[in-house]
Amino acid sequence: MTIENYVLDFDGTLTDVDQEAKPFLEKWQELFAESVDLPQDEIANHAAEIRESILKDPKAGWTYNGLVIAPATADPYVLNTTVYQKLVEERLDEHILQLGVNVDMQDLFKKCYPYAGVAFKEGAKEFLEELVKGHKTVIVTNSDAAKVAEKLAKLTDLKIEVLGNAKKYAAVISPDGKIPESIQPNGFPRPVYLRRNSYKAVLDSLKERGFHPHNTAVVGDIYELDLALPEWLGYHVILMETKWTPAHEKNYLATIPNGFLAKSFGEVHDYAR
User: Fold this and answer.
1) Which domains does the chain have, with CATH numbers?
2) Within 10 Å of residue 254's Cβ, how many Cβ atoms?
3) How many secondary structure helices (H) and strands (E) does the chain include?
4) FRET label pair with 198: which of 45, 131, 141, 204, CA 20 to 30 Å apart?
5) Where are the alpha helices (DSSP H) in the chain?
6) What is the pTM (predicted TM-score) of this model?
């Protein structure tokens, strides 16, 4: 096996998502309360109750286009989005309708992301410096490329290309003769939706530059967002384990020939050796 190229996720893969999300979540609550014209403490109480119920439901998750596209507990950002989606659907739908406002979760995410902290995982700098010595490396993220590059510059002087707004979450149900709508790997509590056309377009553009499935490893911390589509397309996929990683994902990565579960940056390097 020869790995020549790496496609890296950013948030949660290179960063300490729990630390960086704290100021983001505070800003989110503030802006959300403003958008629906309700007190922050009232919103916080509703959110806490819904969060508790979501954590008890293994099938709960972030919904896009009517499809659950990532488990609710994937990371603090996804959990927050899932909670507020439920909050709108179950408790504020009538109120928002009367206000005549549109609560766009993706737009709210973009407004709050600049407030997220900068907290890299221990060893991230050394990992990147070692990786780029012998491999073509790009970062593919759902976040804004300029904001990610700005954060990256605080870690290292390396000039690593960042491809942003990848929309890995944007699953669709339109017909596709090549990619199935969904799969349900052994042990998963619900289907995993594969048709993420925007993300596939990014991977296809990289393929034109030599990032082919047989020689490229895709590294991420959320299987359904970062790795499910690349795995089905034949890429090597490496799941960076976090405290949020579900047991069924860990078990699954151990069973597939092109998959690997890494507990550290060092183990990512070991996979290609």
Assistant:
1) 5-16+120-271 (3.40.50.1000), 18-115 (no CATH)
2) 10
3) 11, 10
4) 131
5) 17-36, 40-54, 76-87, 93-99, 105-112, 124-134, 145-153, 197-207, 228-233, 247-253, 265-271
6) 0.94
